[in-house]
Amino acid sequence: MKTILVVGGAGYIGSHIVKLLLKEKYRVITFDNLSTGYRHAVLGGEFFLGDLANRDDLRRVFQHYPIDGVMHFASFIQVGESVTHPDKYYQNNFVNTLNLLDIMLEQGVKACLFSSTAAIFGEPLYVPIDEKHPKNPANPYGRTKWMVEQLLNDYDRAYGLRAICLRYFNAAGADPECQLGECHEPETHLIPLVLQTASGRRKSITVFGQEYDTPDGTCIRDYVHIQDLCQAHLLALEQLLHGAPSDVYNLGNGAGFSVREVITSAQQVTQRNITVIYGASRAGDTARLVADATKARQQLGWNPQFADLSTIIQHAWQWELQQLQQKGRG
Ligand code: UFG
Fold first, then answer.
1. How far apart are CA 99 and CA 31, in angstroms?
2. Over pLDDT 90: what percentage of the chain?
3. Choosing from 12, 26, 89, 141, which is the catalytic residue?
4. Residue 207 Cβ < 6 Å to ligand 1
5. 177-199 tens-digit pLDDT
6. Are residues 301 and 158 in the same domain?
């Protein structure tokens, strides 16, 4: 049985991964400082409360468990906040990742899966975006992720640390069994905000900008189901543990939906009224991000099961209704 350290395993993507790894019979150790994650979202395995800023915490976990590979999800993810508070992003997303990689090397662990993002590309020169597309991040969040990708490249060349970087476009949806879902505090992502408006937890959803160079003027994104992202991680992990060289993959469905289209789809799925306000554009946003994930399909054998936007929204809606019910009871 292989032992996997999931750094940031109490967060949205990490918690879904932990569930899948356990189902696939991996031994899972979650490392998280619970600054944005939830202990109750870690559905099994062992939990280690620790901070990436503290090399001793990291050393302890590597010395305590026979770790075969690391999956790294712990980072700050708000594009807008990264523009106003870049220090927070460089410190946590870059410097703390350096801590993790250095302790991995010190402890002889040389296989890493890194959670990267479409934000490394910036405003695309062409769509869909393949792996070779030039990198020109439009905000500090994207820059920190791109810096880590380059760091990993250098660490492989110098020290033989192999890494697979998975660049998510817009992770969305929830565990189809409704045990897990998106729970950011504060929530900034479009789909959960729209659904919180549909359920009555929020009064309205504000559309950020209508003057983009897109058919309806609102931003276009490629929404990819969390469960499909998890499957891609599993495939990449298997390759990594079998000695595959470092690589990068874009993960998305290759279909772009505008903010307005997402709201319309949510209206259809939920059959509720959603009050929309049109506001100013958000700093650091790009008009259109759509993935070319041919490489992941061909080399990893990735085959997304929930590519349909309405299914993604349906699963997120199921989760939203359950959250609401629990809050009502509490
Ligand atoms: N949006 C609104 N109103 C809102 C929230 C979002 O109009 O209240 C718009 C945004 O402007 C954007 C789209 O909805 O055009 C999606 O925004 P999200 O905040 O849901 O997602 P982002 O595209 O900004 O960023 C997400 C993740 C990043 C990741 C990126 C890659 O937060 O971690 O996708 O595309 F890097």
1. 14
2. 96
3. 141
4. yes
5. 999 999 999 999 999 999 999 99
6. no
